[in-house]
Every structure is written in C-alpha cells, then in structure tokens.
Design a protein that fits this description.
- By secondary structure, the chain is α+β, with helices and mostly antiparallel strands.
- Helices cover 29% and strands 25% of the residues.
- The protein has an eight-stranded mixed β-sheet. Strands 1-2-3-5-4 form a five-stranded mixed beta barrel.
- Helix 5 crosses helix 7 and helix 5 packs across helix 14 (419-427).
- The radius of gyration is 27 Å and the shape is elongated.
- The chain binds one RNA strand through residues 40, 42-49, 51, 60, 62, 92, 94-96, 114-124, 126-128, 179, 182-183, 200, 221, 223, 225-233, 236-239, 316, 318-320, 361, 369-373, 416-422, 443.
Length: 447
RNA sequence: GCCGGGGUAGCUCAGCUUGGUAGAGCGCGGGGCUGUUAACCCCGUGGUCGUGGGUUCAAGUCCCACCCCCGGCGCCA
C-alpha cells in the first residue's frame, strides 16, 4: 500500500521548507524537493490539485494525468496523507499564493484514513474539535497560536536572563497550601496523606532568593477550582519571579517591562501568525507602550461608583466591575493596594495604612482580565504568624515558610504571570483553552 | 455550587409547539467535469434520536427521574 520503505534508512535528500518556496530568490523553474501532509485535494478529469502543508507553510501541487507512475499514486490520496514530492516550482497567478509545484515524482509515506475533522466542525467551532484536539492542532489556527506561544515562552526566558535572574525549578508535589485548601489536587504519594499538586511555586522561590536573590521559573500550577469560565484552566502555566530587597514599586516595573518585552517580540517575529488569527497588531502595539497605568484600589472604587456600581470599601471586584474598570483604559492597568481580606495571607500590609496590602493586580485590556498578581511579601516572622492565624490557618502547615523569616530575612517582592491568559490576550482568543495545546479544565483531561 | 441552553447519521444541524414508518448539508463510495481555490454537477451510503421508566393503538416529539456537555456567575493567573 504505502511505498515508503518499511526497512532500511530514509534516503538522504535535501528537502526545502515549503514556506521558503515563496521567497523572492526562488526562481520560476527551480527544481525542488518538499515533504509534508495533504491539506486539500481537488480531483479533476485530467489533473489533481493538492495543497501540501508542512510546519512552515502551504503550497499547491499539480499533477497532470500524463505523468506516468504518478497519477496512480495521487488519485487515491486522502486529506492528511503524508508525502514527499520532487517537482518544479512554477510561478502561476492561478495558484494560491502565486506559486505551485508541478509534481515530477511523489512518494506516499502513508495514505491517511478519512480525516474526521470536516469544514462544518471547523466553522461551527464545535466542541468536537476538543475531542480530537490531537488532530486539530494541525490546523493553521492552532499552529499559529502554538508558534506565538513558543515566542512568548522564549521572550519570558530572554527578559529574565537579560536582567540578571536565575532560572530555578520548584517541586510539583507539595504538602501545604498557598491560597487555600479547597483548591488543591490531592495525590496518592506512596499512600501518604496530605500530598498535593502545587498551586504556585512562589514559596519555593521565596526560599531561593536567599541563595540567588533574583529568581524566576516557568512551571505548571494546578488548581482544583470548580470554575466554568473562559479564563480558567485547572492546569495552567505560571511564570513566577521573586526578588530580594525589592519593594512593590520595584516589582511593578519588572512586571510591566516583562509584558511589554513579550509583546514586542511577538509583534516583531509573529506578524504572519497574528494576522492569520485576525489579531489587530496596531492595537496590540499601542496596548504595550510603557508605562502601564497605575491606580489604587480606592481610585478604582471611585471610578466604579461614578459608573453606577454599588460597591463598598473592602469588596473585591466581580467580573462586571472588572470589565467596567478596564474599559476606562487603553492599556493594561495595575490596581494597587487591595484590602487585606481580598488577598492571600502572605501579602505584606502597608505599615502606614495596615488595612491595605502592598499588592497589585495587572488587568489586561479588552476584558482579558487579571494576568498578574503580585506584591511585597511579609518578611517579619511575628507579623506572618499573626496573619496566618488571623486568616484562620494553622502556622504548623507553614513551618518551613515561616522559618525563612528566622535567618537574615529581607524585604522582598514577587509576582505570578498567567502565561496562558497572556497568550489568550495577545492572540485575541475567545477561550483560554485555545491558548494551550492540550487544555485541562474541570471537565476535560482528554486527549 | 447557582442560573440558563443543549444531547437526532462520522461532523454541523432541522424535525419537538400541533405524537402517525427519521431529514438536509458536509464527509465517505461510484460516475461526470480542459486550472481547481471550502471546486462544482448527478447517483449512492449512512441512525439503539443521551439513559431508564411512564402515558398512548402509536413517542425523536408528551410526562417523570437520572447522566453528560456548553455558556454566564462565583473563584482566580
């Protein structure tokens, strides 16, 4: 059936990336070898047109019935069959993209079974695409997102490394909560109770600053929130940083520089992919100009009251409030100084105004929501223990974390960036599930 | 967890109000077509109508229970 050799070595032929066939120095009439997957086929009486896709692009291939030994192989081709093609590149206005390959030889590596994803499923943005996610990731839509995501991760590493941060790794198996017990995934750790998947690497980063001062990590975080929103995953990628000696003000500068750096790199290197996704690049550029806006929690309350919301001091913002607030700004906005009860216990209270914390959330524009949470951490042992108790938690669960405040404790600050949410915003996606190849949420752990 | 929507062919959906032998498009198979662009034209293929029970001469359609999925809220990054 297939004429790819089952035994022996793959013949060493140089293959050209399909994307490169569209560059200006590839002349009409050039002999080319390409390989990839059949993307579309149109069979006529005397000709077969098929679009061939590889990771770099798509080009039309043409087979004439007169081509002996080729026609018989091409006629039974199916969508997603894998082939290698030798042919001649021709400029032709009739071809998509203005160029095509006239096939002189073809080897079918695998005749694909009928591909289950149809145009109907694509256009309806069907749930089915999540069931066959292992196949749907081949689409130009998912491929564009994955390339942008790749560049986002690259930019994060670049920014931190250029700015003197050490990359570190924290464990995924942990024994204590960061936020609260209800959102932990319990695991069977050799039959031992009280072992969970991590919700955040923050506490470990706080330990590591005493060795390396400026640290960051990119790692998954796991949260068992029974959330049904378009902005939540139960397994998400978290870029976290922690810096010794830094104040809230210092860490906000890092946060906005990081976000702006990532967007600039994506705009510079992934314009084609952004356009495939229909993302307005000019808006993105405008949205990433520094500095970002900074408002206090109190100012945010004023804005909301002016817009007719019934909010009282001490309330956290709901989705409606957050949307209304963000709509006032054309760039990301930091909301600084949340009341103590709105934030986790480890946030340091403002010594000059103890009812608020030295914390800040970064809200993305266009309703993409909170992408960063961070601030100063409590570095005094007694202050920390008191606050743990005030929050109804047991200091015994946080022994090693409290221990950090016993040996040369210093002021420090840090933050956590939701990478998938950032990708969602940059790509302009409707759902966070599309920001990651294999999403995990309350309902889905397959494929 | 709460509120709303949904489950019918491999995929996308109509049919349900007003019960009477299950439909379309896409896909797939066959045929046609002198360059196709989500190709097009003709023919064919394809179903425990989410599960269980009830009403009825008769249930995809009406009633009850349950399961699963989607969206919004809450929660967060």
């Amino acid at each position: 059936m297939n004429d790819y050799p089952k035994r022996g070595r793959v013949v060493a032929i140089e293959f050209t990336e399909i994307g490169k066939l569209f560059s200006s120095d590839v002349r009409d009439g050039t002999a080319v070898s390409i390989r990839g997957w059949v993307y579309r086929i149109r069979k006529l009486k005397d000709k077969v047109f098929f679009l061939l896709r590889d990771s770099s692009g798509v080009i039309q291939c043409v087979v004439d019935k007169n081509e002996e030994g080729i026609w018989e192989k091409v006629e039974p081709l199916t969508i997603e069959s894998s082939v290698t093609v030798k042919g001649v590149l021709k400029y032709d206005k009739r071809a998509p993209g203005g160029r095509e390959v006239h096939v002189k030889d073809i080897m079918v590596v695998h005749y694909a079974e009928p591909f289950p994803i149809t145009e109907d499923a694509v256009r309806s943005e069907s749930e089915y695409l999540l069931d066959v996610r292992h196949l749907w990731i081949r689409s130009s839509y998912m491929t564009s997102i994955l390339k942008i995501r790749h560049t986002v991760f690259e930019a994060i590493h670049e920014y931190f490394r250029k700015n003197g941060f050490y990359e570190v790794q924290a464990p995924m198996f942990i024994t204590a909560a960061v936020e609260g017990g209800a959102t932990l995934f319990q695991v069977d750790y050799f039959g031992r109770k009280g072992v969970y998947l991590t919700q955040s690497s923050q506490f470990y980063l706080e330990a590591l600053i005493y060795a390396l001062e400026k640290v960051y990590t990119i790692a998954p975080s796991f949260r068992a929130e029974k959330s049904r929103s378009r902005r939540h995953l139960s397994e998400f990628w978290h870029a976290e940083a922690e810096v010794a000696w830094y104040s809230l003000k210092d860490i906000l500068r890092i946060e906005e520089e990081l976000v702006a750096y990532i967007i600039k790199k994506v705009v510079d290197e992934r314009e084609k992919e952004l356009k495939t996704l229909g993302r307005n690049v000019d808006i993105l550029i405008k949205e990433s100009e520094l500095p970002f806006y900074r408002i206090t929690y109190d100012e945010a309350l004023e804005i909301l009251k002016r817009k007719g919301f019934e909010v009282e001091w001490g309330d956290d913002f709901g989705a409606d409030e957050e949307r209304a607030l963000v709509s006032e700004f054309d760039k990301p906005v930091f909301v600084i100084g949340f009341p103590e009860a709105c934030k986790a216990f480890y946030h340091r209270n403002d010594p000059e105004r103890p009812e608020v914390t030295l914390s800040a959330d970064l809200l993305a524009p266009e309703g993409y929501g909170e992408i960063i949470g961070g601030g100063e951490r409590i570095y005094d042992k007694d202050e920390l223990v008191k606050k743990i108790k005030r929050f109804g938690l047991d200091p015994k669960d946080y022994e090693w974390y409290i221990d950090l405040r016993r040996y040369g404790s210093v002021p420090h600050s840090g933050f956590g960036l939701g990478v998938d949410r950032l990708v969602m915003w940059i790509c302009g996606l409707k759902h966070i599930r599309d920001a990651i190849p294999f999403p995990r949420d309350i309902r889905r752990v397959y494929p």
